[in-house]
Design a protein that fits this description.
- Helices cover 11% and strands 50% of the residues.
- The protein is mainly beta.
Length: 290
């Protein structure tokens, strides 16, 4: 029985240390013991708009402490973001485009008082609603565009003590009220149907006839993207046929920010590569929705 008891004790100690690490404040406290714990939305971290968001702020403290209040701030914005791929490409453009504010408000969680020793839980609740008439956008982390929603919680402990701080990002999904029609699209590809091809290149291209069909150009994200490609005729051997999903991020700029400044679109490309090196591409804009 002794080894089993030792295992239980070790497991409990490990869990306590793991909880301490997970709940560690981003701003170190003076005694390294008082921690602002997890901000836990419930029942899930994926929110629909409008929806009541409920959760708890958990504070772990072995001795307890006095505080000047527990406050929360909820922010959501769409903005440009610089990355290693875009550094130097549009730095001045980035500085001139202000973020599009989607959500911003403050929420009191607890008045000034004292946190008792142990683990304390402070419930909170708010309605996820856009500022004024602003529609919420889905959470998105792209190469150039980012749509992000965060809950920031602060516990003020006095003038001479560092405040406790915790930030949590939550995901927002915006489903459509009604599903879109499938809008299937058929295609026929021949040398004559190609665009942006030089006449001399077109004359040297072997004849081919490719047909197919995209079953849905309006695609629910929970269903597979399907279609068919038929090689009706090809005078030159075909090396490969590929289907590509392309994400296009665009930003409109006119001395500031407009409501429709940020746009994310999706396209599919059918790419056919011949053994002689010729390559043809057919493009289909598609819409992804929930």
């Amino acid at each position: 029985m002794t080894p089993s008891r030792q295992v239980e004790i070790d497991t409990a100690r490990f869990r306590k240390e793991l909880l301490f690490v997970c709940c560690k404040s981003e701003v170190p406290t003076s005694d390294h013991a008082r921690q602002l714990g997890d901000v836990i939305p419930s029942p899930t971290d994926k929110m629909l708009s409008p929806e009541i968001v409920q959760g708890q702020v958990i504070i772990s403290s072995p001795k307890g402490f006095s505080h000047q209040g527990l406050a929360m701030k909820v922010e959501g914005s769409a903005r440009l973001q610089l990355s290693t791929k875009s550094a130097g490409l549009f730095d001045s453009f980035y500085n001139n485009v202000a973020p599009l504010e989607l959500v911003y408000f403050h929420l009191p969680v607890a008045p000034a008082g004292k946190v008792p020793p142990g683990i304390s839980k402070f419930p909170f609740e708010f309605e996820l609603q856009g500022n004024d008439d602003q529609e919420l956008l889905e959470t998105y982390h792209g190469v150039y565009v980012s749509v992000k929603y965060e809950i920031m919680c602060d516990c003020i402990r006095g003038i001479m003590k560092n405040k406790l701080h915790k930030t949590l990002e939550f995901v927002v999904e915006v489903p459509l009220r009604e599903p879109l029609p499938d809008s299937p699209e058929e295609f026929h590809i021949t040398p004559e149907s190609l665009e942006n091809v030089r006449p001399q290149s077109l004359s040297a291209m072997p004849y081919f006839h490719i047909t197919g069909k995209v079953h849905r150009t309006n695609c629910p994200v929970n269903l597979p993207f399907t279609g068919e490609i038929i090689i009706e005729e090809a005078k030159s051997p075909i090396k490969s046929v590929e289907l590509q999903l392309i994400r296009v991020e665009s930003v409109a700029h006119a001395e500031g920010v407009a409501k429709d400044a940020f746009k994310v679109e999706f396209e599919t490309n059918v790419v056919v590569l011949f053994e002689n090196g010729n390559m043809i591409t057919e493009n289909f804009p598609i819409t992804l929705y929930r």
